[in-house]
Amino acid sequence: MFFLPNGSVFLHNGIANAKRLDEGDSLDQRLFRSRSRTAPNPRGLSRSAASQSSPDAAAEMARILDEPPVLVPEVLHGDTRLTRKWAHGGLQEDYMRGVTGYVAVGCYEGQHEISWRIENKRLVSRTNPKAFTLIPKGVDGHWNIAGPVVVSHVYLTQERLQACADEIASGRRIEILPRVAFADPAAAGLLEILSHEAERDSASSRLFVEQAIDLLCARLIREHSSFDSLHAQVRKGGLADWQVRRVTTFMRENLEHHIGLNELATLVGLSRFHFCTAFRNSTGQTPHAWLTAQRMRRARELLAHTSLSVTDVALAVGYETPSAFTAAFRAIVGVTPSAFRRAL
Fold this sequence. Notes:
This protein has twelve helices and eleven strands. By secondary structure, the chain is an alpha+beta fold.
């Protein structure tokens, strides 16, 4: 990812399209027919020329791969998009134009040589679950992947990354670095978490998803850019007592509603990034973990003292489906809601 002269941030993924995984299919069964889909005059197209008509990242992925990205329908804060895990095959000198946004790629199956040729520079590595790929906006090049892979993508806009960069770098201009299967277990882990949440497709997990995306953005800025994390000024400390009371009271009074990070941060006049860190410093928990604990406490009360069905209890504490509620309840309490009620 790079910040261009106009201050924009660019990120792009090098392991693009693949079809969604079907249960029971092996990776070999999901092989994609490696074929070159070269744009007109690819070798003669300069980076500046490519940027004049930069395509959408997901659309460009769909053009060069045998199967398009499996996008989650919901558009998140800052026009961020997630994909589910899916499989695609190798690439052979396939030309990818520079795109309008940023793509971060996690790879979960298939360990093969991967390379990206940018003008006279060639980045080479091997795909693996502890590494991720990051392609700056507007940077074109030729890709090679020696075999089929299972991946997920996060498509980030300039707005989303710039907000993080402004917060962390105090307005300083930075450059995001291109990465090809670069070893970073933290970034790779965040991408896998987001791929799991993409499968849930539940409104109750939005707060967690937005926070995980914020963490990914912060990781990219701190560890995969020109920003020097050792000398960065980091805001320390927690929330004031009145801020903790205002936020926690709001969450307790709105357990049945969707609650977003922006909404909570606005209550106390902070940015989303600063709020998450300050809240954890003050309470020992992330906003999502604290809210989930309160929802489960209320759910136990309703199961014990009312005749509401499990579905009605789920709705009363902010879950859209009984299955999502049951999974969260079991993770916190250790048993299903029905088993909890029977044991009373």
